[in-house]
Amino acid sequence: MQRYWNKDKGAEDVRPYDFNSWQDSPTALGLAEKMGPDEILLEGYAEMATYRSLMAYMGEPTGDAKKIVDLDGVGGTALLVKAEVHRDGAMFPPFPFYHLIETEGFAKMARRLGWKSFGLPNFYVSAE
To answer: How many C-beta neighbours within 10 Å does residue 16 have?
Structure first.
């Protein structure tokens, strides 16, 4: 979630942000199975609806900030990674890795190495 100034309300408000953190769906997995080795699956395009569960929509403005959800894809807005994950070889692939790139590809690569990704849908990061 992102805090912002809502001009219509004349007050601070929250809205979904960073659609790269998600839980996979059977639809997305099925789309990936039909792709060529160099094709990538992107989130947020009507032409390629994935029906993934997006963490951006899991947050509750007054929800428990310590609530944890499992993720299959991660965004880079606020990402903490254990050094051991990188030492094991995980990286942010600039190339298709199981039809994903960059942060989303990183989550898939980490999972293939035996690591799990988690998100905090009710935790707000402040950059003041």
So the answer is: 13
Pick left, alpha or beta for residue 49 (phi over 0 → left; psi -120 to 50 → alpha; otherwise beta).
beta
Q: Per the structure block, which two tokens stand in for 125?
A: 């990061």
- Looking at residue 128, what is its pLDDT? 66
Q: Which pLDDT does position 91 carry in this prediction?
A: 97
Number of other residues whose CB lies within 10 A of the CB of residue 11:
8
For residues 114 and 85, what is the distance between their CA atoms, to the nearest angstrom? 9
pTM of the model: 0.88
Q: Is 83 exposed, middle or buried (0-12, 13-18, 19+ CB in 10 A)?
A: exposed
Using only C-alpha atoms, what is the Rg of the chain? 16
Is 16's pLDDT higher than 80? yes
Both tokens assigned to 39: 């094709």
